[in-house]
Amino acid sequence: MKRLLSALLILTALGLQSGCSLREPMSAEQDSETPTLTPRASTYYDLINMPRPKGRLMAVVYGFRDQTGQYKPTPASSFSTSVTQGAASMLMDALSASGWFVVLEREGLQNLLTERKIIRASQKKPDVAENIMGELPPLQAANLMLEGGIIAYDTNVRSGGEGARYLGIDISREYRVDQVTVNLRAVDVRTGQVLANVMTSKTIYSVGRSAGVFKFIEFKKLLEAEVGYTTNEPAQLCVLSAIEAAVGHLLAQGIERRLWQVAGDPADGKATVDKFLSQNQQQP
Prior knowledge:
Layout: H1 2-22, H2 42-48, E1 57-60, E2 65-66, H3 87-98, E3 101-104, H4 109-123, E4 144-166, E5 169-188, E6 194-218, E7 221-232, H5 235-256, H6 270-282
Parallel strand pairs: 1-3, 1-4, 2-4
Antiparallel strand pairs: 4-5, 5-6, 6-7
Protein name: Curli production assembly/transport component CsgG
Function: May be involved in the biogenesis of curli organelles.
Keywords: Cell membrane, Lipoprotein, Membrane, Palmitate, Signal
């Protein structure tokens, strides 16, 4: 009897293992792990569809800091912030993508100056490499300085859910909405005047769905099963989208105020500019 029971247990264990290995993989498990380019939102395509400039603006970004002071609500929140600390790189990418700016390196200015010192020191040696033989030109100066930062991160702006349970069978759905806000302003380097200033916000959605059963199918035989998944919108992509929208609004404000001029036919790209300006008019 004991041998029969042991054999049944072994067969059951093997059956469970084979069942787990032969089941159809979930969609999340089928996702490719090959690195890809960062996905872009509609704000990116609005930005690249702006009209072309009459002349590109020399711009610098010294930093675009996280000014929220928010940390993730987890046990390890002491060292994990709610938003990215690389927003300056995102801003420089958005400025370059717009086609309106020549972005000069200033965030890593100390590293750049150190490398230039190394080149000058190497030029004094008898055997100078060909790539550093020429005299170093001076660094270019900028006309505009882009300032600002991530100024707010609000959690649980909206939250809720819905569900139903009947005879031990239940299904439910929950959601939560966070919001991130960025500020961007263009400053005239010669006068220090703030030429344009915008604030943009982007919502961050989290959705969870689950279903389960907890029911006696026969006397002393309980069926219990549960399935569910959660989808969280990446916070860094939402920050990137808010920054791209801020750059678009900044350009639209400058075009409307004639701070910078459009090349060619003014009708080219006018629909995109009007789209940004109409959003400003819709604000109460």
